[in-house]
Design the sequence.
């Protein structure tokens, strides 16, 4: 009887393989409160940067967001594609520098506060 009980147990284990708990990654679909707060701060900072950027940069980003190629954008703006790439690069560098300045200063600016209020 013990022999049959052991065989049944081994067969049951084969039907339901054991998983090493060290390999299992438990992921919660909901972000943590810290993650939600960090996302709100990043969104607020992004809106502040966008509000302080020149209109020319915002227009370039709108065209990029709509999916226009650099060639199509260059035609629309009547500039060479290389010139357009430089403009986009300069806007990006300017935005990154502004983002770092705002982050270092705590992110408080009048234009940024107005942009944040407009969204909320």
Sequence:
């Amino acid at each position: 009887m013990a022999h049959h009980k052991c065989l049944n147990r081994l067969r049951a284990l084969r039907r339901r393989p054991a998983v090493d708990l060290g390999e299992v990654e438990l992921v919660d679909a909901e972000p943590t409160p810290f993650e939600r707060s960090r996302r709100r701060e990043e969104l607020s900072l992004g809106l502040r940067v966008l509000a302080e950027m020149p209109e020319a940069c915002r227009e370039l980003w709108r065209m990029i967001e709509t999916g226009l190629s650099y060639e199509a954008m260059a035609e629309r703006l009547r500039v060479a594609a290389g010139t357009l790439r430089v403009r986009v690069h300069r806007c990006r560098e300017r935005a990154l520098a502004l983002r770092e300045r705002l982050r270092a200063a705590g992110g408080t600016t009048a234009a940024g506060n107005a942009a944040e209020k407009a969204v909320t």
Notes: Residues 46-107 form a domain with the Arc Repressor Mutant, subunit A fold (CATH 1.10.10).
